[in-house]
Amino acid sequence: MFEAAELGRKIKKTVYNEEIEGLRADLLQCQQELLDCDFSVVLLISGVDGAGKGEMVNQLHEWMDPRYLETTAFDAPTEEERERPHFWRYWRALPPKGKIGIHFSSWYSDPIAQRLNGQITQSQHEAYLSRVNTLEKMLVDDGTLLIKMWLHLGKKHYKQRIRHLASDPKTAWRVSKKNLDNIKVFDEFRSVAEDTLRQTSTGHAPWIIVEGYDPRYRSLTVGRLLRDMVRKRMEVDPKTLTSPTVDWTAKKDKTTLLDFVDLSQALKKKEYKEQLLHYQARLNVLARKAHKQKLSTVMALEGWDAAGKGGMIRRIIHALDSRHYRVIPVAAPTDEEKARHYLWRFWRHLQRAGHMTIFDRTWYGRVLVERIEGYARTDEWIRAYQEINEFEEELTEHGIVLMKYWLHIDKNEQLARFKAREQISYKQHKITDEDYRNRERWDDYAQAVADMVERTSTQVAPWHIIEGNDKRYARVRALQLLCDRLEQVV
Question: What is the distance of C-alpha 35 from the center of its chain?
Fold first, then answer.
């Protein structure tokens, strides 16, 4: 794979000078045109030490408008990053639509180094790369132009470059002991890198290998590729990027699992008070243990309008230390959030180790309201099931306790609660004309909920359907399930 990038290609200074002015103008023009486009560009700069990765990043900043260029250099994970799932820091760094993001030392650096050092096995390496492929497909499916460039040097040129830099007092600071040691293991590094590129060079995100021996050749090649790939993407009709999708819901049985939920479950007031205090006390002890052990919890709450999510949350947080939890109320996405993949806004809210994050409505909006109201195309919400499963698997693999609740009530109970809200001054803000309009599509939403549970209730992240016609029963049941799960892990 790397042989073609070990030929010692060079470009004469006169040729470089003749082309560079026009190339810089083209790149600046691309940035201006990109501002009006409905996609972002993510440029990964990876490769062999000494092949000019840092110089290339600096070069692009010199050539282009830094206002529309977002560069993130990933070093060893910080303590804050280690307390969250591995890909959290990469999701946070994604650029908005209309901008170019450069990832210097991206999600490929760790697996290559860890495999080379024997910190992970071959099977673990392959499992990680499978997750990388999934991440990249998510981004590309969402419209991102993902450009992956590997700057390469052969063994001979690598030795020459490192030793030359080390011998000059002006550049010796750029050479670490690790760079010198890597000369001895270059063949092993080359093998691991080649295997990594082979497994992750896909049709939607291929690798481009650029020879890094001559700085002028490297710079012109990367600049040309970036310009040409952005221009080509601008010429593509976004509709042609979507995959043909079969709407498998059209002929489904209209009877759903929600029809079999026993909504007669209820608690008397005295019994409710006793059990509420019992489970809140139990949760308090368990939550303190979890915080001490740096065990995080994510609660995902979904349910019908007026099903009682707010009241349930209040009963849960009354048992918690306010320093150790955060409630995230999810509404329509902001402009900042709409400019990125829909999962971005949920990744960014994940708390540090030992904390609890409670989402009042969640990432499932993609397969519920966005599906029913037409805010997401059919291909977008159908692929979202798999994307969500991958997201939740990453959370649980990191050790996060994930609790997913669907709070269920029947249509008559919902109407009664709507009417009650209209009569209570401090609850009137909760009821809108849209709430009544949504009732007209009750059956559509019920089918969407059934599909959601069927496709995303997994062994690592099962759904819990809470019988909610009786608020007292629902609150106690939610607390009980949470306590039972925490007791299994703390």
Answer: 23
The string over 30-51, giving b where at least 16 C-beta atoms fall within 10 Å of a residue's C-beta and e elsewhere, is: bbeebeebebbbbbbbbbbbbb
pLDDT at 108: 94
Token pair of 164 as six digits: 């030359």
Rounded distance between C-alpha atoms, residue 54 and residue 209, angstroms: 16
Indicate whether 245 pLDDT > 80. Answer: no
Give the residue with greater pLDDT, 178 vs 455.
455
- In angstroms, the CA 141 to CA 131 distance is 15
Residue 142 has pLDDT above 70, yes or no: yes
The closest of 348, 304, 311, 308 to 328, measured between CA atoms, is 348
Domains parsed from the chain with CATH numbers: 3-241 (3.40.50.300), 257-489 (3.40.50.300)
Q: Which of 272, 207, 248 is nearest to 471 (CA)?
A: 272
* Residue 43 pLDDT class (50, 70, 90 cuts): very high
- SS3 call for 40: coil
DSSP-assigned letters across all residues of 415-462: HHHHHHHHHSGGGGGG--HHHHHHHTTHHHHHHHHHHHHHHH--SSS-
Q: Please provide residue 76's backbone torsions phi and psi, each rounded to the nearest 5 degrees.
A: -55, 140
| Cβ contact 68:35 at 8 Å | yes
CA 117, 118, 120, 122 torsion-angle sign: positive
The answer to whether 371 touches 446, Cβ cutoff 8 Å, is: no
CA–CA gap between residue 185 and residue 34 (Å, rounded): 42
Mention every residue, 6+ apart, whose C-beta is less than 8 A from residue 344.
91, 94, 337
Q: For residue range 204-232, list pLDDT tens digits in order.
A: 999 999 998 899 999 999 999 999 999 99
Cα-based distances in Å from 97 to 35, 65, 135, 244: 8, 16, 17, 24
Q: How far is CA 95 from CA 26, 81, 209, in A?
A: 21, 19, 24
For 314-365, the pLDDT digits (tens) are 999 999 999 999 999 999 999 999 999 999 999 999 999 999 999 999 999 9
